[in-house]
Fold each of these.
Amino acid sequence: MKPLEFVKPGSIQEASQLARSNGASARLIAGGTDLLDEIKEGVVRPEKLISLAGLPAMQGLDVGPSGLELGAGVTLAELASQPDIVGDYAALAQAAESVATPQIRNVATLGGNLCQRPRCWYYRSIGFPCRKKGGTTCFAALGENKYHAILGGSDCVIVHPSDIAVALISLNASLTLTSADTTRTVPVQDFFEGPDVDITSENILVPGEIVTSVSVPAPPASPLSAKSGSVYLKAKERRGMDFATSSVAVALSVSGDVISSARVTLGGVAPVPWRAAAAESVLVGRNVAEIDLQELGEAAVHRARPLQHNAYKIRLTAGLVGRAVETLLSDWR
């Protein structure tokens, strides 16, 4: 690694100005669990690191009647262990708990997890000038693609690595994005963009813009005849530290015996966290006793187009979606 200048700004606005004025020669850093890997692997070569750690605007974990307000600097360990999150926003706590190891969760941040870069081995290797790095070839498309996309891939078949994003989309969360002179709020689902929009980026951040907080609405009020809940399930090759080969977050509301709302989001299968609208349509309006889990799973992956080495993900993902819904419904029957 070459020498780096490490800067600790006093505010989000100062951090934004530094990031904007230094351009590609600088990187924002919070926990650093992903960025430091990129630097060590030679994928990026910044001259300056701008620290977001400790900035008050990035902190805070508040639970209230209207929902969760989370600073982007909150650690994954905090998300996984906070009792109110574990109870009322289970998918978020489960997604946080699934990430890496306890040591990494203690330093990895909410914002950093959402903004992490792909784990495609061709992108991460300096020996392959892939399209995401400005080259002309997606080496994974015809190469070793066991872990790559079965949905939404085009000129680049990465999968988005964030577990947290999958849960937040099913929980209908939104992000606050702050720069030196503007603030905007966007649904988490709209934060991500695939290679068909910009092959060099995975999200809509503009230069100098920073993810500063996350808002998660409270679960629907539950009269005696209504229930709501969420769950996150993740398939991976190793029981310990590993990224998802496939994952799913499901959030359901049931009135009487009928599913009144459903949000199903897939991870590990597309360049962005993938909202499975067809699976949601299978659920909404159905009596809980009439849900066909096979039909549900097939709907979730009906647009899948596997590569040479990853057709297994279709069956895996379909089964995972069915198991997630069955997990929720079994608690309510």
Amino acid sequence: MQTVFLQSFYDGMAIRNTQRLAEEIVGQVDSDDFEKRLDAWASEGSMLIFLTDREGGILYSTDEHSAVYQKKDAGRSGGSNPYREQEGLSWQEGARHNLPSDYPGFLKCLEESSTGQVGYKSADGNAYIYGQVLPESSRFGQAVLYMSTPLGGAGAAVGILRVQLLWVTLASLALASVLAWLVARQFARPVAAITRQARNLPDGNTEAPYEAGFCKELDEVSQALAETAETLHKLENARRELLANVSHDLRTPLTMIKGYAEMVREISWSDEERREQDLGIIMRETDRLTALVNDILGYSAAQSQEPELTRVDLSRLAKEAVEQFAPLAQQKGLKIAGDIAPGAQVLADEKHMSRVLCNLLDNGLRYAQNQLTVQVKAQEGAVHVEVRDDGPGIPPEELPLVWERYFTSKQRGGHGSSGLGLAITKELLTAQKARFGVSSQVGDGTAFWFEISQVK
């Protein structure tokens, strides 16, 4: 910007200064010290100034050196300027020889001007020429003011600036290269750490070699990779557990189905009564196998799926669960008593909450002897849900184990359970940050409960 536009800025400023100075000269033309002021203005503005008549006769002349000569030759008669006394001529005649070569053209332009003013650049563009006709009332009459100021003064400055710009550019490039290398080195380190972190994902390595703090965006990428690694780790564990569960839990019913099918083929195919018994066992084991597979899939889903939290009316879900299990309870000769407070609103996953209630009711119906009680009430900013049966109860040493997979109490017996219902319930409640537990007395029934924060 400096090297390209400095000259035009300089030219514009010089032209404006010349025009402003011309106004001052016209305003001070009748002052007593006009000549001294004219010399000072010419010196300060680096100008050549002439006052002439309409035919080009010199009335007064000065330039940027006139003020210096006046001080140096103050002892001379009239304070004359030796610049005006060339070859023994009078100062007017010497000055006439120093009129610009284009002065006749200047006078012609001024005469053709309707405003009595003229301003233009010289033919070579190195000077600005300005002229004006003085007022007739001035002491010089209608004299002509001629002013010339050079416009090439910025050339040397531009050259200096170009040299400076070259050195500044080279220094800036060197400094920028060093800074870029340092920043790239600092930036490459965490990027490499994130790359290693991403490559470790297929191996199940959840350790994060990345150190947070260098860049917010990279921190977020690393955090996303860590969360992805954790999710993949959970999915991998769920997959392995699913395979282990399938191989462990399906072996017995499959063996029985195959054994009784072979028995029907080899032995009881011709004995209708025996054949019906064996086929009944096969069908019962098939149903057991189906229920077991569903429980295993439900347990795996509970471990891997994130809950979708919405506003849920837990009172309504509890009533629906009681109505759903009422016919089954009636078949077993049991009664379901409901103590459900209305309007218990919680922030939870509705499907998961419905599954939890069904699992607890199903578990209670397996062991209840006469009655099953479902209670829903609000207390201290939370909703408390409890399912109590009047069964044989659970020994104290077994209470911590009831939430584990495949555990069945010796006191209560299996009752055809896969041992996964309470484990699924535990996973679903943990995912929704709910408190849960169990209380029991041998011979006095068991109560399973959970609490979840209430919303208004």
